[in-house]
Automatic annotation (TrEMBL):
Phylogenetic lineage: Eukaryota, Metazoa, Chordata, Craniata, Vertebrata
Pfam families named among the record's database cross-references: BAR_3_WASP_bdg, PX, SH3_1
Residue ranges of the TM segments: none
Domain (PX): residue spans on this chain: 216-326
Topology versus the membrane: Peripheral membrane protein
Record protein name field: Sorting nexin
The keyword Transferase belongs to this UniProt entry's keyword annotation: no
GO molecular function, one term: phosphatidylinositol binding
Family annotation (SUPFAM superfamilies): PX domain (SSF64268), SH3-domain (SSF50044)
Gene from which the chain derives: LOC107726735
Membrane in keyword set: yes
Keywords: Cytoplasmic vesicle, Membrane, Protein transport, SH3 domain, Transport
Length: 566
């Protein structure tokens, strides 16, 4: 294979159509087009660029996205021929001789097919309207904290929940499709200085991530309303305090959203990154909504803190402990230029002292985890449905039933009291007490879901989002397995060498170790989370029934006992 040594130009991907105004020295560009930046120092929110037709003019900075180092390498490789005739994976990209096609191993679940290389890279930016737009975009340019998805605030099926990361991340799977063909064999094209994440044997369970000695955590608290532009724009700011420094930093929802996008870009191929809490169009400044959002942001941050790879990443540490505004902005720009994104993250993983895995074993473990996550996803959704129905009953018809029973007892007491018979005062008092007890029980039933069911539902809601990410992650591994399976055919037809086939197997083995480490991390956290939340749920249930037994109910019981003595 021929190495690329040509100097890379600064390329950019056009995000939106732009039509030039006559006489303004502007350049018309179309969505998805690749342009070359010729002058980034124009100022005023403009850059000078040249399109594929050789025309030069001004383009708005917000309409483009500067390609990362790997994207520029891929574009150049396609232009210089390394992605066709000399590329061992060209047979899959172009559906050339041999009858193979780039169909992601017969379209494994959770992936997308049929995208061309140009459109796939266009989707790599994830198209999120609130995401940080790169070095050219100042903080004020994406300051509006609008929300484009209305949240119900409950636990019913949400639009974002089914697809996990893929719904908020755009066509995340399609941008991985091209890069995966390269990452198994062609990483040597583009050498990077990266941090190595270690996987080592953890015992009978299998390989595990290298966990830090100190467990990071953080507290999201103290929401405050802020304004800018003389009160025209309002937002809610939260204090985030990491346990490492105990020094709070302030973040708005859009900053959490920016962090989510960066983590999804960088780790989404290897590690499931669950979605943030849903956005909302109205009611963003209501106390109940702010409290709910803060609680869910806390849950999301705690989960990220517990992951050894994510929590030790530079972008996550920046989010938790930036020094000042300058440090924050510089860190954001550096994160946007990170070149180890997508499937390239596997080049940073080192199975320390572990042998290469057999392909059959790799496939079996992948399929085993795939079956489990699908089954658990069904179980979690079922519990959410049942829990949601129970919540509605507890806050609606069930308290009303208890209130009607209470009213009926009190009405009967009033009727008995109107008889004028002197010997029934004790009975009527007991009936009245019983009626009031049922009214108290109605109030207790209505308030109980917030004390027990709420935490169980929140945990299941988190896992619903987390499980929604796994089809994409598993799809990457399935595709790698299929590529390695086809290696013998490629060697036989002279498409790749035997040494390249061995390299492919080693890298597929590394990917499998990463998946297994992630499986063990997931199972460990799952056992901890459900043990904790079920214990809390049942303890609150016990307290509820003890209150019913030992509260006003005991008074009415004693009252009827006294009636029996009379």
């Amino acid at each position: 294979m021929r190495k690329v040594t040509t100097r890379l130009a600064t390329s950019a991907q056009v995000l939106y159509d732009f039509t030039a105004e006559p006489g303004n020295n502007e350049l018309s560009v179309r969505e998805g087009e690749t342009i070359t930046i010729t002058n980034q120092n124009v100022g005023g929110g403009w850059i000078e660029a040249k399109n594929s037709r050789g025309e030069v003019g001004l383009v708005p900075e917000d309409y483009i996205e500067v390609c990362s180092g790997y994207q520029k390498w891929l574009l150049l490789a396609q232009k210089t021929g390394t992605s066709n005739g000399n590329d061992p994976w060209a047979v899959f990209d172009s559906n050339a001789s041999g009858g193979f096609s780039n169909n992601w191993a017969a379209q494994p679940e959770g992936t997308e097919t049929g995208e061309t290389s140009s459109s796939a890279w266009h989707s790599g930016g994830h198209g999120h309207p609130q995401a940080y737009q790169g070095p050219g975009a100042e903080d004020d340019e994406w300051d509006e904290e609008w929300d484009d998805v209305k949240s119900s605030g409950g636990y019913a099926e949400s639009e974002a929940g089914e697809g996990g990361a893929i719904h908020r991340g755009g066509a995340h799977g399609s941008s991985m499709k091209i890069a995966l063909n390269k990452v198994l064999i062609a990483i040597s094209f583009y050498m990077m200085r990266v941090r190595i994440y270690t996987v080592f044997q953890g015992g009978e369970a299998g390989p595990v991530w290298a966990y830090p000695d100190y467990q990071l955590d953080c507290v999201v608290a103290d929401p405050k309303k802020g304004t800018k532009m003389y009160g025209l724009k309002s937002y809610i700011e939260y204090q985030v305090t990491p346990t490492t420094t105990n020094k709070p930093v302030n973040h708005r929802y859009k900053h959490f959203d920016w962090l989510y996008e960066r983590l999804l870009d960088k780790y989404g191929s290897a590690i499931p990154i669950p979605c943030l809490p849903d956005k909302q169009v109205t009611g963003r400044f209501e106390e109940e909504f702010i409290k709910m959002r803060m609680e869910r942001l806390q849950g999301w941050m705690s989960r990220m803190c517990r992951h050894p790879v994510v929590s030790s990443s530079e972008v996550f540490q920046l989010f938790l402990s930036y020094k000042d505004e300058k440090d924050w902005k510089m860190g954001k720009r550096k994160a946007e230029k990170d070149e180890t994104v997508g499937v390239m993250i596997f080049s940073t993983i080192e199975p320390e002292g572990l042998p290469d895995l057999d392909l059959i074993e790799v496939e079996q473990k992948c399929e085993q985890f795939n079956r489990f996550t699908r089954a658990m996803d069904d179980g979690v959704k079922d519990l959410l449905t049942v829990g949601n129905e129970h919540w509605k009953r507890c806050t609606g018809p069930l308290p009303k039933e208890y209130q009607r029973i209470g009213k009926a007892f009190q009405n009967l007491s009033s009727v008995f009291n109107s008889s004028g018979y002197e010997g029934e005062a004790t009975l009527t008092d007991a009936l009245t007490a019983a009626g009031k007890t049922y009214e108290d029980i109605a109030q207790m039933v209505a308030e109980q879901p917030k004390k027990d069911l709420h935490f169980l539902m929140e945990t299941n809601n988190e896992y619903k989002g987390l499980l929604g990410c796994f089809p994409d992650t598993i799809g990457v591994h399935k595709a790698a397995i299929e590529k390695v399976k086809e290696a013998d055919k490629l060697v036989a037809t002279g498409k790749i060498t035997t040494s390249e086939k061995i390299t492919m197997s080693k890298r597929a083995s590394t990917m499998s170790y990463a998946l297994q480490a992630e499986m063990i991390h997931f199972h460990t956290n799952r056992i901890y989370d459900y043990n904790r939340v079920m214990q809390q749920y049942l303890e609150q249930q016990v307290k509820f029934y003890e209150m019913v037994k030992c509260g006003n109910n005991s008074k009415s019981s004693r009252a009827f006992h006294n009636v029996g003595r009379c």
